[in-house]
Amino acid sequence: METIRQNTVKTRKPHHCWGCAEEYPTGTTMDVVVSKDMGKLESTYFCDICESVLSHWNSSERSDGIGYGELKENDPRWEDTKNELRSA
Ligand SMILES: [Zn+2]
Fold it and tell me: Are 43 and 34 in contact, with CB atoms under 8 Å apart?
């Protein structure tokens, strides 16, 4: 899989975050990663919590890839980060 681009958008419809599997409503600021897989373009959405957790990962952790919802399930920093961001 090859990453084509990554940018920050304000969503125009509800999207599930790939990292935590939470649904975020229209108008949420999310990161979109567009990648090419077997000639098909795929868009993956990440919320601010997951982006923040991912920023602590090193490149070898990232290159292993993330399954749907795994960031929240497997990384104890997710809940901490959520509390931090949402209490601000
Ligand atoms: Zn998320």
Answer: yes
pLDDT at 45: 95
φ, ψ of residue 36 in degrees (nearest 5): -115, 125
> Region 73-85: what's the mean pLDDT?
94
Q: How far is the CA of 34 from the centre of ligand 1 (A)?
A: 16
Q: What separation in Å is there between the alpha carbon of 38 and the centre of ligand 1?
A: 25
Q: Tell me, what's the pLDDT at 63?
A: 65
CA of 51 to the centre of ligand 1 (A): 7
Report residue 72's pLDDT band, with 50, 70 and 90 as the boundaries. very high
Cα of 19 from ligand 1 centre, angstroms: 5
Here the tokens at position 31 are 């990161």
Q: Domain range for residue 72?
A: 2-87
